[in-house]
Write a structure and sequence with these properties.
single chain; alpha/beta; Rossmann fold; 2 domains; 3-stranded antiparallel β-sheet; 9 helices; 12 strands; Glu/Gln-tRNA-synth; protein biosynthesis; ligase; zinc
């Protein structure tokens, strides 16, 4: 049996905050506890939303918290040619098409694309590119959240794989890069649970195996918003690494000994690898940060 390959794929739209740290820790421990590899990939697909220096700061913070990854960091900004090659193939095969619908036009459809441009034959240049979806249900058994499925036609509709401004969509990039890197186990926040059926369809089209999925609870603020740059979530600080790691472990249902708070991050992660219990993670979609103090 091949050893598992896990990954952490942050977006450099801000610095590493507690919610991202919890996701990083879960993916790291799940891979390392099985003797597997752990990769870091920078999802720098959206330059207008990036914060200058954030990508480097995220890597330095991971290092300060004791994380070690295998191989070089993969930057999605260096993968545009690969994404475009697949889109070109699908356009030529009629699997994808150009869409000129404005956001205002689509507001009335509650996030499900109604197929307005499906057979319009618009030029590809200067338009968004959508992928045709089948009228089928795609589902999977998440290791934590249980069975989840969507009817792509009814619940999503044809979805964007390249935006009108030329930027590549997360759904396409993540599937291509997971396949490229041989990722076998995806551990990430539960806010991405609803993206998975689209990714299963993309994997089917590309002829690549689907990884196992584990969607951990999202860490939220008191108002219910997830932690993130948009809501000014505070970045984690290197000088408090061990204390913050203890808190993150408890958020994941692990039971670190209080004395470990006085150990180095390296020692603490060693303990966590040896005692990792994925089945102990709370089987919920979100946890309020205030409850984890």
């Amino acid at each position: 049996m091949h050893k598992p390959v896990g990954r952490f794929a942050p977006t450099p739209s801000g610095y590493l905050h507690f919610g991202s740290l919890v996701a990083a820790l879960a993916s790291y421990l799940d891979a390392r506890a099985q003797g597997g590899q752990w990769l870091v990939r920078m999802e720098d697909l959206d330059p207008p939303r990036e914060v200058a220096g954030a990508a480097d700061a995220i890597l330095r913070t991971l290092e300060a918290y004791g994380f070690e990854w295998d191989g070089p960091v993969l930057y999605q900004s260096q993968r545009h040619a690969a994404y475009q090659a697949v889109i070109d193939q699908w356009l030529a095969a009629g699997l994808a098409y150009a869409c000129t619908c404005s956001r205002k036009t689509l507001e009335a459809f509650n996030g499900v694309y109604p197929g307005l441009c499906r057979d319009a034959g618009h030029p590809w240049q200067g338009a968004a590119i959508r992928l045709r979806v089948p009228q089928l249900r795609y589902g999977f058994d998440d290791r934590l959240q249980g069975h989840f499925e969507q009817h792509l036609g009814h619940d999503v509709g044809d979805f964007v794989i390249r935006r009108r401004d030329g930027l590549y969509a997360y759904q396409l990039a993540v599937v291509l890069d997971d396949a490229l890197q041989g990722v076998t186990d995806v551990v990430r926040g539960a806010d991405l649970l609803g993206s998975t059926p689209r990714q299963l369809y993309l994997q089917e089209l590309l002829g690549v195996p689907a990884p196992r999925y584990l969607h951990v609870p999202l860490i939220t603020q008191p108002d219910g918003h997830k932690l993130g740059k948009r809501y000014r979530s505070a970045p984690v600080q290197a000088q408090y690494a061990s204390a913050v790691l203890i808190r993150a472990l408890r958020a994941l249902g692990q039971r670190p000994e209080p004395a470990l708070e006085h150990e180095t991050p390296h020692t603490l992660l060693g303990w966590a690898r040896a005692h990792w219990a994925a089945h102990a993670i709370p089987r919920v979609a979100s946890l309020a940060e205030a409850q984890l103090a």
